[in-house]
Amino acid sequence: MFERTREIWREAVAMGMLRHELETLLPPARSHELLSRFRAISKSVECPHNESHVLSFVVALLKLPPGIEGCIVEAGCYKGGSTAKLSLVARYLGRPLVVFDSFEGLPPNSEDHDRTIHGTSVRGWFRPKAFCGSLEEVRKNVGTHGDLEVCRFVEGWFEDTMPGFQEKICAAYLDVDLAASTRTCLKHLYPRLAPGGFLMSQDGDFPLVIDVFRDDTFWREVVGCGRPPMEGLGKSKMVTVAKAPA
Fold it and tell me: How many angstroms separate the CA atoms of 220 and 217, rounded?
């Protein structure tokens, strides 16, 4: 009960700060409309994220200089609630949204997740096939609540679909739960980030995922660069990895 109270408090504080930032980045009417539509989506589509998670990515996305090229990428979309939200912002920014998902739930894995850094138990959450939304279901939810025209869906396991992806990325949003999936996303998506772009993970409260982000050898030998600057690592659910401007 105490941890749940702390989570509610953290969410309220985060949302207050993010609303203020959004209002400095968008005209008041546009900001109000976007927040209203986000709330409506959360009520209509099962969303495992809190409102502040996607909104923190949106605020960072709106701060990107328009000269930074590339599409927006989402990795892991479940039933399409986050996709619907991001599609509205992608339309506003005039950028395509590329969505990677198996549409079969989580892949086979034996990762032994126990608790988050905040003490919440996640044991048994990430079994194979968990968090499954079919492509048909996702497309329907995005078409109803978001903007389907800006979306392109890439169906399959990340290790099969991401190696062939060659487009430049301005920003990527990861909600993939597993350490193995995080490694795959970083390996293939981070090198595609445009200079000045960023990648954000909402799995930063899982110790096994934190280990991936902290692994200097992984960054050097697998991703092909030194470990880049990160915000929130080991402290927050949201971890932001920036790519230095050119």
Answer: 5
Could you report the per-residue pLDDT of 73-120, keeping only the tens digit for each?
999 999 999 999 999 999 999 999 999 999 999 999 999 998 888 888
Confidence of residue 246 (pLDDT cuts 50, 70, 90): confident
- Tell whether the torsion through CA atoms of 157, 162, 168 and 172 is positive or negative: positive
Which pLDDT band, with edges at 50, 70 and 90, does 7 fall under?
Answer: low
Contact 198, 242 (CB under 8 A): yes
Name the helix (H) or strand (E) containing 4. helix 2-25
Kindly state the helix (H) or strand (E) to which residue 57 belongs, with its residue range: helix 51-63
Neighbours of 105 (CB within 10 A): 16
Taking the complete model, does pTM exceed 0.90, yes or no?
A: yes
Q: How far apart are CA 166 and CA 189, in angstroms?
A: 9
| 157 φψ region: left (φ > 0), alpha (ψ -120 to 50), beta (else) | beta
Distance CA 27, CA 224 (A): 41
Residue 149, SS3?
helix
CB of 97 closer than 8 Å to CB of 151:
yes
Are 209 and 203 a contacting pair, CB within 8 Å? yes
